[in-house]
């Protein structure tokens, strides 16, 4: 299997590129001289990041695409824009995603339908469009950002967890379909990370959001390495690997109970320091 490392003729498309994992992916690809197509809702942040990386690493081109992938039309619009500009996407990073905290019967349906569009439909749509071109060339790489909750039900974050279970299953099915082609599809399954995710999901007061966190730099680095090696799945962090492994041993009801505890808001006893509990 050929790799694409260090090839300055290659181009990567990264969704959700304005912060978090997406920003770190952009830095890693730029360092290896990939030309960048950066997609997010915030055009200003994309321009600041993209043009600074272009100057620092002397990239041939950086394409800034302001787009909201919670809109059903966005994937086709992105694809058409790149086609019109003669840009070939060699690597697709489906990174954009969002969640919403709360009991499903109380949360906002409109936001959840937008999350499904963003986390599932846009991933399928972008993959369909760009994978066809990769198959025609018999070359390409795709990284789909799933989650540690891809392996387990997550009460109080039910739609998000279910959407990431879809991403993992979808990715693993494509791996089998493409096993005889020069194309790899990798699933990145991070645990809680120090990004804006919990704040945007209105979950910043949960136990999960106030426990151990991976840095976005570490997660992106692990995901990038796995992508370049053509690995099928990467779960960054020892404890996350243990949790993913446990999902094969414990019943779903036990996993759901554990995740509910993590996604519940912190109580007073959670806020006490070890010394104050003595």
Automatic annotation (TrEMBL):
Transmembrane segments: none annotated. InterPro entries: NAD(P)-bd_dom_sf, Sc_DH/Rdtase_CS, SDR_fam. Pfam families: adh_short. Keywords: Oxidoreductase. The keyword Oxidoreductase applies. It comes from the Bacteria. CDD domains: SDR_c. Belongs to the short-chain dehydrogenases/reductases (SDR) family. This is SDR family oxidoreductase. It comes from Pontibacter populi.
């Amino acid at each position: 299997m050929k790799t694409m490392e260090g090839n300055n003729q290659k181009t990567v498309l990264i969704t959700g590129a304005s912060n978090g994992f997406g920003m770190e992916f952009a830095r890693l690809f730029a360092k290896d001289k990939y030309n960048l197509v950066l997609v997010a809702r915030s055009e200003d942040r994309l321009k600041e990041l993209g043009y600074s990386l272009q100057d620092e690493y002397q990239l041939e081109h950086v394409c800034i695409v302001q787009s909201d992938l919670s809109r059903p039309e966005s994937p086709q619009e992105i694809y058409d824009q790149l086609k019109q500009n003669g840009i070939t996407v060699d690597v697709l990073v489906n990174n954009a995603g969002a969640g919403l905290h709360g009991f499903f019967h109380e949360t906002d349906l409109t936001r959840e339908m937008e999350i499904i569009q963003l986390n599932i439909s846009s991933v399928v749509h972008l993959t369909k469009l760009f994978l066809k071109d990769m198959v025609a060339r018999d070359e390409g790489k795709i990284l789909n950002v799933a989650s540690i909750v891809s392996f387990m039900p997550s009460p109080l974050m039910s739609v998000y967890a279910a959407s990431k279970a879809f991403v993992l299953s979808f990715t693993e099915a494509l791996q089998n379909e493409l096993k005889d082609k020069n194309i790899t599809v990798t699933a990145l399954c991070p645990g809680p990370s120090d990004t804006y995710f919990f704040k945007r999901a209105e979950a910043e007061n949960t136990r999960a959001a106030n426990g151990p966190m991976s840095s976005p730099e570490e997660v992106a680095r692990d995901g990038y390495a796995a992508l370049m090696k053509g690995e099928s799945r990467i779960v960054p962090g020892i404890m996350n690997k243990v949790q993913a492994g446990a999902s094969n041993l414990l019943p779903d009801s036990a996993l759901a109970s554990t995740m509910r505890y993590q996604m519940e808001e912190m109580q007073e006893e959670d806020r006490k320091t070890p010394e104050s509990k003595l």
